[in-house]
Amino acid sequence: MSYNNKAENRKWYWKGLKDGVPIAMGYFAVAFTLGITAKNIGMTPLQSGLTSALMHASAGQFAAMNVIAANAGYVEMIITTIIVNLRYLLMSCSLSQKAGSEMGLGHRMLVSYFVTDEIFGISSSVEGKLNPYYNYGAASIASPGWVIGSFLGAAFGTILPASVANAMNVALYGMFIAIVIPPAKKDKVIAIVVVCSMVSSYLFGLIPVVRDISSGFKIMILTIIIAAIAAWKCPVNEGGEVA
């Protein structure tokens, strides 16, 4: 795959931009709540927005803020953030395979910077090889939604009733449903995997000992186990069809 075709790259960019609109809306809502949390632990709106610009990870940022609030050291903060965000390692490996060897190091590094749960979801749903300009398009609108939401949440979030601020998080769950349902309707294997993932995640929150594992590790464990079973039972051939 060559990325010298400007018309083709432009087409993929605009497709990513369009698919990134609902993500940006969900990000803004969640980031607004994140900004309120940042404000409550003494961070300024600028610090809150800068943190979101440097780390596109809601769970990771919330975890880091909890460490900051506890007056913990830098080492503990770094280790906590890495553990919570370990799932992005699996996502990046998956996208690396989808990108193919044609994608150069520069594109890979830029794409990896914007790997989030939602962008990974829409990127995985793209048919064929992944064009990096699709990710650039999605990130160019989703990332500002995250950063601006964090800034405004820290600046003005405290004037909103707590019930209103918490209700804004519902938008993100609606966005996840919008990403998962279409491919699940087309492929029964994907539908089964989605259902198994939901049930397993719920059980992991109830089972003693397992429920005490950090959310990042839970996601990694479930991803590896469920994906491995699905790949073993329903392998996909080079044509992209279930064998």
What is the topology?
Layout: H1 6-40, H2 45-54, H3 58-69, H4 74-84, H5 87-99, H6 105-113, H7 117-125, H8 132-156, H9 162-167, H10 170-186, H11 188-204, H12 215-233
Helix pairs in contact: 1-2, 1-3, 1-8, 1-10, 2-8, 3-4, 5-7, 7-10, 10-11, 11-12
Q: Note poorly predicted spans.
A: none
**How many strand elements?**
0
- Average pLDDT: 81
Structural class: mainly alpha
Q: Tell the overall outline.
A: globular
Strand fraction band?
under 5%
**Helix and strand element order:** HHHHHHHHHHHH
Termini Cα gap: 25 Å
- How large, in whole angstroms, is the Cα Rg? 19 Å
Q: What composes the largest sheet?
A: none
User: How many helical elements?
Assistant: 12
- The percent of residues in helical segments reads over 70%
What are the main properties of this structure?
single chain, 243 residues, mainly alpha, 12 helices, 75% helix, globular
Q: How would you characterize this protein structure?
A:
This protein has 243 residues and is an all-alpha fold. Helix content is 75%, strand content 0%. The chain is built from 12 helices and no strands. It has helices spanning 6-40, 45-54, 58-69, 74-84, 87-99, 105-113, 117-125, 132-156, 162-167, 170-186, 188-204, 215-233. It is globular, with a radius of gyration of 19 Å. It starts with 5 loop residues before the first helix and ends in a 10-residue tail after the last helix. The mean pLDDT is 81.
